[in-house]
Specification:
The chain is mainly alpha-helical. The protein has helices spanning 2-34, 43-59, 63-90, 104-132, 146-172, 190-217, 226-236, 243-262, and strands at residues 97-98, 102-103. The protein is 73% helix and 2% strand. Helix 1 (2-34) packs across helix 3 and helix 6 packs across helix 8 (243-262).
């Protein structure tokens, strides 16, 4: 129980750090994805327009719901996945790596952590997104985008854990530059781990992230399915909309947050 509480507390500090250092870039990303009038604007022009009207405060739009819910969802993410790993070990399941690379127990624990995070994130991210795109909300719409959020997070966190495990294998094989590894050379530094592995995970699910934002923004027809939105984004070239500010934010926020988490 004590170890479980520590894992949750560490996740809370991770989430708090993510909000503090990453919210401005997240606001730019969400406006690029969820506001049709910004659908062709560059990240710089979106940031310039918002900053000229509201200053730094505008860049932190939606920060409060993410501050309150973000810490909890990171705690759920790390806490649930950690508990899942413990349970799988207790069951005495055989060790096995698909293609000699992918540990199925890590994938299962990642899926569990992603679901735990998604259940918390869906409503809190709804409020955050509506604040960021300057759209009023109604209680009946709070769960809009829950399905795609759960699907995105399930793959996102499972992918993150897989990439972390692959990075350890790469370090053990001495194919990672020493500047990115810990002194013993057996794993990435906390900042490199958070930045590189999180970015790879985000790239894996980015098209789903665009759809999630669109569904939660209130600026797109709620009767259109997530699949149809995805296909429309593919046709219009919007499936990786906002990826530049999103990955810059991920590098800074997840790198810094992993340092705090492992500290």
């Amino acid at each position: 129980m004590a170890e479980f509480a520590v894992t949750f507390a560490a996740g809370a500090f991770y989430g708090l750090t993510t909000v503090v250092v990453g919210q401005p870039l997240d606001t730019i990303k969400v406006r690029m994805q969820g506001m049709p009038n910004h659908s062709t604007h560059s990240a710089f022009s979106v940031a310039k327009e918002l900053f000229s009207r509201e200053g730094v405060r505008g860049l932190y739009r939606g920060g409060l719901p993410l501050f309150l819910g973000g810490s909890l969802m990171r705690s759920a993410q790390f806490g649930v996945s950690g508990k899942a790993r413990d349970v799988l070990r207790q069951w005495g399941l055989p060790d096995y790596r698909l293609f000699g690379l992918f540990d199925y127990q890590i994938v299962l624990a990642g899926i569990a952590g992603g679901i735990g995070r998604g259940l918390v994130e869906a409503p809190t991210d709804f409020f955050k997104t509506r604040r960021q795109v300057e759209k009023r909300w109604e209680l009946r719409h709070v769960l809009d985008g829950t399905g795609v959020t759960l699907a995105r997070n399930t793959v996102l966190y499972a992918a993150f854990m897989v990439y972390v495990d692959l990075s350890k294998q790469a370090c053990a094989a001495h194919i990672v530059p020493s500047i990115l590894t810990t002194p013993d050379g057996m794993s990435l530094t906390p900042f490199a781990k958070g930045a590189i592995c999180a970015n790879l995970a985000w790239l894996t699910v980015w098209p789903a992230d665009v759809v999630k934002t669109q569904r939660q923004s209130g600026n797109y027809d709620i009767n259109v399915s997530s699949w149809k939105l995805l296909m429309e984004n593919v046709k219009s070239g919007r499936m990786f909309r906002g990826v530049v500010p999103g990955l810059v934010r991920s590098s800074i926020a997840n790198g810094s947050s992993m340092v705090v988490y492992e500290w």
